[in-house]
Amino acid sequence: MSEDYNKPAFKKLLQKLQEESWQLELLISGFAIFGLFTAIEPVYDSMREAQNNQQLYTSVIYTIGFISCAILIFNLMLHVLLRGLWIGALGLRYVSGDIDYETLNYSPKFTHYLKKKVGSFDKYIGTLENYCSIIFAISFLLIFYVLAITLTIIVIVLIINYVLSNDVLPGWVSKGIGIPIMIFICLGMFITFIDFITLGFLKKKKWISKIYFPIYWVFSFITLSFLYRPLVYNFLDNKFGRRLSLILVPFYLLISVIASFHYENSNYIHANVSSSSIMANSSSYEELLIDNKNFTNDVIIQSKVITDPFLKVFMLYSENIEDRVFYYNPALEPNEDIRGLSTDLVFNDDSYRGKKDSLRQEYLKTINSIYIIKVDSTTYNNEFIFGQNIKKELGFETYVGTKDLTEGKHLLNVNRRSIVEDDTTYWRVARIPFWYYPN
Known about the structure:
- The radius of gyration is 31 Å and the shape is extended.
- Helix content is 57%, strand content 13%.
- The protein contains 13 helices and nine strands.
- The protein has helices at residues 8-19, 21-52, 56-96, 101-104, 108-117, 121-164, 171-197, 201-204, 206-222, 229-236, 239-259, 319-328, 350-370; strands spanning 299-301, 305-306, 310-316, 371-375, 378-380, 385-388, 394-401, 408-420, 423-436.
């Protein structure tokens, strides 16, 4: 079976399939475009939410998914457009045949120019066919390129976290092994990129290729290029494919630049400005977070207009908060940090659970020592506990009485303690305006 590709019957089957592949291309493109348009908005919202919650791993996964969806949508829509034009050209050829320049009865100058520049109608159909086939194939190849870049970055991060910054390993091991590996990966990444954008220049020079081969071999595993390498070289051995590969990179960069443009309505008012004494951003108020497209700010309160005898203050959890807790209370830092990807396939240990409950109490005590709450110039004794907001996001919540507030506008300030060279200062975390009008 492994030698079937050499048999004439198999080659004849491939010839037949490639002649009829346009039907499969259109079918796959249609279903894929429908599915991608359905998926891209939820993926984009999940990506923004992960970024807003500072969830690094989840953010990377959704970012890859969003970029892949965007690339496929653009390429497949372009493919369907060109394939539709190709089908239209075939239908027109059936009715009208090739271009008859003599029937057009143009002047000799224009007839000669059009024959040279436009040429045969069959050539036009053939060119369209080439574009359609290559764009369809390269659409999925680009996803592998995105994956290759991501995997390379992940390898660098893993080396930093588990070798260079690993306190368990002796210094001579982490530095003596980690630094050479990091230099090799970074230098190899740059050299591989040069070879990629020059369409294999480093493989053509005999003495350079001997040096480059070990790097190429290692990065073929890091980037998983052994899975799609036949596609790459099939593009590069074709002049048309090489030309299209060179055009695509600057073309995508141009699209990214164009997509970054937006219309500004004002020199001073912007929707994405954080809440302050002169700005009330909707992401700072829980009642306005019902719309899933709104993302929670670091601190939120229940409403712009407070009629209750209390002010609910919710502070969104982030890994940076936990890092600060460890800084101010090193005893809480576990021997093994379980933040990141994990599994639910664990056994419950009642004794460990009781120990963890006491540690949670200490955790909250540290939180309440770091953060302070003010309304206008009055400081309140906050008692943060673990909680969730209306969007089921984890964080810390506390309540502040409002019976001593006068009617009208007030300003909530949440600050955190910072110690720099034995000097204690307070950094602003959030400033949210609200209006108090009791019932």
